[in-house]
Amino acid sequence: MATKHSPLNLNVRDLINRPGEMREEQFTVDVAEQMGEGLVAVRSGAALDVDARLESVHEGILVTTEVDAVAEGECGRCLIDIALPVEVEFQELFGYHSGEAIEYEVQDDHVDLESLIRDAVVLALPFQPVCRPDCPGLDPETGLRLADHPELVTPEHSDPRWAALTGFQASEDSGPDAESGADQQRER
Ligand SMILES: [Zn+2]
């Protein structure tokens, strides 16, 4: 829970009831409580780079926030440790008075970004993170990471994505990668 002392609870006293005034704040905070429960998460202690634009408007304070962080965890296919950059951006109006369209309120001259940032970051985390888009995963028999042991990749259990990569590598010298490009598109 955020308190008045949370670094993500920003003082906007200087902007209240001064429509047209604007201020930007850039700061880095340590994540207090892990964000995300999946294979990758922004762990407690990780740095959160926050860039917030605070604008005074008639109804309240309009906050535009950009957050950068790094999520850590493991690849969903081959289980090695990975770190993924996470970037989120959102805009929210903190009203002076709650109303139908106003979900957040200016409280004690502060706008609390904590839950907004947490929700946005958690939503941005991939459900199936991979160390690289074409990660071939693990060999079902040996449990070895196929990316490290391409000799274990046989047609029987090769992932189609891996097959595409092998083809690409084989034809690397011969020029255009039209084939690999088509495969990437199909994956989307
Ligand atoms: Zn992987």
UniProtKB/TrEMBL annotation:
This is DUF177 domain-containing protein. Pfam families: YceD. Residues 150-160 have a biased composition (Basic and acidic residues). Residues 150-188 are annotated as: Disordered. InterPro entries: YceD. It comes from the Bacteria.
